[in-house]
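Hello, quick one for you while I still have it in my head. My current little project is about how a certain protein chain folds up. You're getting the sequence in one-letter code plus the fold written as tokens. Would you mind checking whether the tokens look sensible for this chain? Here's the protein in full, and shout if anything looks odd to you:
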Amino acid sequence: MTLSGEKRRGRRPALDPGERRRLAARIAKMVLVDRLEQKEILQQLTKSEPGLSHIDASTVSRLYRFALDTGIVRVHIDENAPFKPPRIESLERELVAAYELQSAIVADASGHEETLESSLADDRLHQALGQLCSEYLDTIVRQNEIVALSSGRAVFYACESLFNKHIFDKRNVRGVKVVSMNGNIAAEVWSMESPDARRAMDADISGAWLARAFPDAELIRLSLPVAVKSPEMIHEWLAEGPGRWISPAVWEEKAKLGNSPGGGPAGDDDVYVPTLALVGIGGVRAKSGHRFIVGLHEPMLGNLQPELGKMIELIEQISGNGNKLISCAVGDLCNRLFVTLAARKHLPPAKLAELDAYVQAINERLLSITFEQLYLVPKVVVVAGGASKVDAIRSVLEWQAMGWSQPIVHDLCTDRETAVRLLEAKRSSTRRP
């Protein structure tokens, strides 16, 4: 018989509402994120919080159900969610051999031609590339790495995917610094959650996602515009402040003296040449999703007028009627433009000279690193693909034909059909006398 006023033998103390929600959230994370079994959950709870020694398997089940029923756990099903496609190792080996790359990642992703007609299909392809590229980045980023980023959708998705992978379990790589390589353009990508929504994807934004994947990463935002009004103003912007991180003079000086960053935060005058660069390659086509096209009338691109508008009109004349010889006349790397090999080969001399003049006039006003600066980066990873970019990607890989003194790209992440066309182009050029 139980005496009045005494506690019943074996009765467990009740949890207050706040503690109940905390435990329910923690158990839900162990189930859904850490994929732990009930026995492992009990072991972790009693080990980390001895006061919970009274918790048993039935309590764990009830708290997990409580998390589901009260909205602590929210389920979102998205049929357009990005996926990580399988890799095609045979094409990867061929690309490495054909273009003397250090590494290649080829996604078995379809929808190549559809990307020309649908911005959503184009974005899905870039998301797939970003998923695979993030897996690769996760294996190569090391302690005290200085990671530099360009703008671009595939770069954005690679950074976001790496953050998502480590959202609850940040990778234990310390001393990482993340910095942009070009100014901002107010560029955006489609949001998979709504056909009318957009998401910012400038290099500063991508850097913020990437930095959050590491426990103590330092993010250096340039907060610069994409371009200035005159070439003379470039030196002013790069002479002090964050602009020094992309100054050619600073990079040359650091390369001569040795680039040995410490593990502490960078001071105002501490600028280092990146040890790893993640960049995209774009194709500036008249009716494409390229940021210079969709942002043609944005205030930040006003400094590139009238040459940018005239260049786009000329590109439309060159390739707007389905010209298969020159599907992409102008490409970009880190927002810096170049005339593609296809345009150099097939354009009449007068048209080529006009296009070259527009490209040079625009490049002289861009706040972005030069191609020569990329020579100083030990590891340059390019993530790019899609029907609109084949000519541009090939031009960057064929660095000798472009007149560059050494290769810029070390690793390439692309899709299956882009890889096939790159290999076909290489074989065709080899067969010619």
About this structure: The domain at 89-431 is CATH 3.40.50.1360 (Rossmann fold). Residues 119-140 form the longest helix (22 residues).
